[in-house]
Amino acid sequence: MSPTCRPSCSHAPLLLFLFTMLAILLITLVAIAGLADPGLVLAFVSPSPRKEESSDKHSASILPYFALQKVLKEASPIYGTTAVNYGAESDTATWMSAYHDETLLVHMNIPGTHHAASWNHASAAQDSLEYINHLANLSAVRPDFYRCQARSIAVMLDAGIRVFDLRYALDVTRTNLVFWHGDALQSETASVDDVLYSLYNWLEWHKSEAILLSFQYEAGGNDAVTQAMLYATLTSPAARQYMVQARGDLGTLGQARGKITLLRRFDLDLLPPVYENSIPGVHFPPNNWTDNGPDMALIYNKTTGATAYIEDYYQPLTPNNSTAETNIRWKVNATEAHLRKAAWGDHPDSLYWTFASSTNTGHNPPITPVIQALGNGSKSTPDGGVNDQLLPFFQSMRGERLGIVMFDFYDDVVELVPTFLGLLAPDESVRFSGKHICCANFESRSRCRCFLLHNNPCFQIDSASASSSNQIIDTLTVLKTHKMFAQFQTSYSGIETSLQKLTDSIAAYNPSVRDAEELLAADEAVNKNIEQLVTHQQNHQRLASLRATADALDATIQNTIRLLADTRRDIQSIPSVDSEDRREVGVEELLQYAKFIAPTTVAPTFRKPLPDEDEQMPKKKEGATEVGANGIVTPVDVDTNPAYTKSGQDKKEAEPAAPPPPPPPPLPAYDFVPWPDHGKITAGALGDIQRMLDAGQDPAAVLSAEEQAEVDRKRKEQEAEERKRAEELERQQRDAFGDYSSGRRGTVVFNPDDL
Asked: Region annotation Disordered: residue ranges (predicted)?
């Protein structure tokens, strides 16, 4: 071998090794690129007619991948590590895919996380930020004071979390927007832009899902520079592509799929109005957000009046030395009261937003977010934390809309989020519009038709259980009871809050009149709720009584219907009798017989009862006088009356009283005949009239027996008067001329009338 070839020959194995490693590296990159975008593999393996064109396609395809990987790496302190194989994800990663596009977001149960960016705020992260904190003159604080989560945002997305509470501000160099929790910096490298691009990438792989981001300014120094940088981030071309552009309206799930809905807890008041008017999302003005409010109503669309009902009672106002169990109980009471309002309230189409997160680090010892959420693991918190106590509450709220609920350390209670997601099925969410009652009008044999309360279709129930109206009464009672219980819990929490404020002011030697007035108002609200509760119990007892009466009447009606059915069956079972001995009757014969029918006929057995003798004789009133006594009744003197004897009196008293006359014999049970027979008609007045007509006489000129008797009586009276006048005239003549029959001789006087 010549000396000139020795150097090249000696480097040949090394060059071969380098080319081999380069090939392996290239193949590895192609494989990774294929997982991220299958089109990249085709860019390497597909033949190309021109080398220059193939090189251009290769460069255009691989560069976005490297750029995305760089962004994901920079965002990892906040976003976390992106899973590569999405095919092995759990069902919760795509739980929204089962819901209909028409489902309103306000009708869904959507889990969220409070201070989602704080999951990596541990001691190691604090140590890595030591020099930056020193540069910003930030004092070191216990990490557990600010840490509210234990899982990254990427893991949260896979677990079903869809609402993220993120707090932003400028970094210590005032050149970039990063995430903070109070005065605790979460990361100097992971910017808001980086995390948003990570979320955009996740949505590319999960087109069925929707994300809601709550952005809130944190820490001091909110200036025009900060607002301008945030506006640029939220209105960039990528943001316009992946964010819902509607303003003041949450809309439907179909409109939000594959996009981010912005919940704006910030203002752009330091910029011209055009900035505020052009940024998308639902605006919750910070000045209208009640600090540490257990129950607030916030209008987010003045045009439509759309209102959000929010609970953000993040620091229970307990006494300074209260235990962790007391703080947990106060927070649970406020959270459950607000969730009951979401389920049973009067605003079914409004947004309900509940924060189950809380802390009280000002206590001694401090109560950190993890203690509030999970308890301290000792006997001092036997029921666990807020999450432990919310799990059985969720299990009792099957079928209810609770809205958005924000958790701390959601994953430590394993069944918490799955139970919350399972409260309202997809079909129930799309038909949800308030509370429900079912009735007994059936569309089919197995289902019932519903009528509405708050214009809301009810859940379907079996027809067997809907056959009674008692179920409607029970449902109404349950609805009223739950609503009253929620009101009572709210008013009681108001008393606790007002009392704590007043106690604190007294302890500070500065009693507050306003707090005292609030306490009185809260006490009046409790008294009013108690009065309503008493009325409710009275109404419940009344309903129970009416229900018993209704059941008894139902039983009576059922027995009556059953008896009628049996009677009808018996009547139908009787065979009909058709007599063979029948005589045909012509129409003329029937009419000839019908002319004798009287205008009014009664049954021959009808007899009007005669009044008793005592009833016929008018009773003599006490103190009445005899006729002719001139109003004076003269008593009879027993001693002076000769007709009165004691023996007669004794005899009269000895006689027994006459027995009452026997009742008349009952009339024979004649069969009812609607008209008299022919014999009775011919023997009566109608027969006489008919005979007169047959003889050619006018019945009107012929007197009846009564009329003839009256004429005879008057004739006799007239004859008697004429005889009386004749006798009187004869007596007068005798008195004038004397009595010739006396036998004496008398003088005759000439009377000219005798001529």
From this structure: 605-681, 697-755
